[in-house]
Amino acid sequence: MPWSKIVGGSSRLGELLEELATGLEQGLLPAGIFNDPEIFEREKEKIFSRSWIFLAHTSEIPSPGDYVLRYILDNAFIVVRGEDGQVRAFLDMCRHRGMRVCRAEAGNASHFRCPFHGWTYRNDGALVGVPAEREAFGEGFSKADWSLLPIPKLEEFDGLLFGNLSPEAPSLKEWLGDASWYLELVTKRSHAGLEVLGPPQRFVVNTDWKLALETFISDSYHTLMTHRSLIELGIAPRDAKYAMYGEQIHIPGKGHGTMVVGGPPGAKLPPFWGYPEEMMERAKTSYPTRTHWEVAKETRIFLITLFPNFSLHNPIRKPDHLYPKPVPMLTFRVWHPLGPGRIEVVSWGLVEKDAPEWFKEKALHSYMRFFGSSGTFEQDDTEIWSHVARNAGSTLGRRVLFNYQMGRGVAPDPNWPGPGVAYPINFTDENLRNFYRRYLELMLD
Ligand code: FES
Ligand SMILES: [Fe+2]
């Protein structure tokens, strides 16, 4: 093929977005969108400054005074439960001259005292102490005018706390749309809800946030090759095409996507992800609809990615060669953008609050073995992602068009019982084409 056929225009922002707009429906995406300073600046303004971004799970801050420090772009927020039990989030920036008032990643505090001049805030954000207040600021000074700044928007869905930098943002419910139905497959598996298995792991990867989430919204196809060694070791199912089976579903107009993976036809797999019998029984009554149960009981691997950068993965895995049975594990992750071609992965392990202790231990073991900083699957993936981003940012590589054509022409599954548009096979880029439609809409807005 002549070079001109596989090369788009220059990498200037307008041309890159134009190339994306022109090529998307044909499944052709310019590599340059994955590691480009101008694209990243626009993503900060057009995507991350007005999208709902996952901050924390409520089980991380169960008691009054519990807090965690979390980020949206370069903004640090103290997510804290007040003495009244209410969860709030404040910009970690002293109202006096801008010093950080919270110096730890997590903890418990009734107050936050600024180390610069000593202004002190209660954990509901109110300024309650100003050294030498009267002598320094006189009678007219009102502490009530100088509380910590709350995040413009904070909302919760079943224990998942999301923040938004835009006061004009639609509600979280509206933002999620039909994706909430699929989230409930995990959040409502038990009446007791989820709890985190310790603080999140964090690690930096030289890649683009979009490349990372692609794996968790659509790219089952990579398991054949990227994780081949794990298949050969018997850690992943023997059928190399195991991730092909099941349904890939997207929520049109929202950018969200999910993969509900079953097993190869005729395969003998434990029912209901391999959760203990008692948890399976409880799920029958905790799910909001019968259809949730019907879908859940056929599922062995489940992923969902919420636009723009939150993913959840709930696969069944054998924790090690000594343990005879596969154990499901659950991870949440945020692909936190640090710069062009650079992210911090924030990765949580979670489990149902009312799961038996032995299971919690095995689920944690399974999570740490496969995902997070020590995870074998994670290391397979991050190594690849970093080279793709490096190529995408290179002088010649940035002008190449990538192939997102898998599954074009496959008709949606008319019999799928859940919401969204479902395809009867996971080897398709349909969720990605939907994701980039939404991405483009916001980037061009
Ligand atoms: S900057 Fe915080 S008290 Fe001065
Ligand atoms: Fe992977």
Helix count?
14
Q: How many β-strands, per DSSP?
A: 23
* Major sheet summary line: 9 strands, antiparallel
Distance between the termini: 35 Å
**Average pLDDT rating:** 94
Estimate what percentage of residues fall within beta strands.
15-25%
Please tell me how large the radius of gyration is: 23 Å
Q: Kindly name the structural category.
A: alpha+beta
Q: Any ligands, ions or cofactors bound here, and which?
A: FE2/S2 (inorganic) cluster, fe (ii) ion
List low-confidence stretches: none
Query: What is the assembly state of the chains in this entry?
Result: single chain
Shape assignment: globular
Helix content: 25-40%
Task: Summarize, please.
This protein is α+β, with helices and mostly antiparallel strands. The chain has 14 helices and 23 strands.
SSE order and pairing:
Blueprint: H1 3-6, H2 13-23, E1 28-30, H3 37-48, E2 53-57, E3 66-72, E4 75-81, E5 87-91, E6 106-108, E7 111-113, E8 120-122, E9 127-129, H4 133-137, E10 153-157, E11 160-164, H5 172-176, H6 179-187, E12 194-196, E13 201-205, H7 209-217, H8 223-226, H9 228-232, E14 247-250, E15 257-261, H10 277-286, H11 290-296, E16 301-306, E17 310-314, E18 316-317, E19 327-328, E20 330-339, E21 342-352, H12 357-370, H13 376-392, E22 401-403, E23 421-423, H14 430-444
Antiparallel strand pairs: 1-22, 2-11, 3-4, 3-6, 4-5, 7-8, 8-9, 10-11, 12-21, 13-21, 14-15, 14-23, 15-16, 16-17, 17-20, 18-19, 20-21
Helix pairs in contact: 3-14, 6-11
